[in-house]
Fold this protein.
Amino acid sequence: MVDILRARKVAGATFEEILDLLLDGRLERVSRAEKASGFRSLTVDPAEIRMALASRPANVVAAERAIFPFTFRPLAKLELLVASGLVSLAANETLPPSRGTKLMTWSVELFKERYWTLITVARQLCTDWNVLRREFDDLGILPVISSSNSREAFYDIEEVKRHENGALLR
């Protein structure tokens, strides 16, 4: 039994799919953790989720629409993300990726929550991305995926939040 948010990765399902199963009463092994609050207080069995969703068609999304609509050299970045395990390819997809490569939707959902581009962080903090990049360099916050265009580099948002300038993102 794991919390509902962790179950997404373990079961390979999106948050929406898990909620649908809960609301439809299709999950029997559901409990509430006393020490947690919100969605983290709901615990479910990932194996039960996998079985309930086994007959569904694969929930996939085109990579260029999911993560990279405005980035430079999206296929090169996609290959890095898949190779590092940050996103998962749909069944029957192979590396190197090509236009139209499909990703598992649950892995994209988790990726978008955890990794943001420098320009996205700068917009959230209402600051210039060049200034923010220098601050990150000074603090030793390195991008997870680098880019020749530094504003498109992906950063682990949890690492950013641990530092003073990320306090506004909490």
In short: The mean pLDDT is 83. The longest strand covers residues 30-32.
